[in-house]
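Chapter review. Work through the record for Sin domain-containing protein before attempting the end-of-chapter questions.
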Amino acid sequence: MKPDVQYSNKQLDQEWVHLISMAKNKGLSVAEFHSFLRKKKAKGNHKG
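Structure tokens for Sin domain-containing protein:
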């Protein structure tokens, strides 16, 4: 059985490339990038 919702590797890769290029544009270090991702994820999960 395949799951209903599927993300192709291509889509995921494009999203990562976008996020990484954004981080580079902001001049973030790897550690800063990770904390940025955590904040981004937290914002998405907790609205309000």
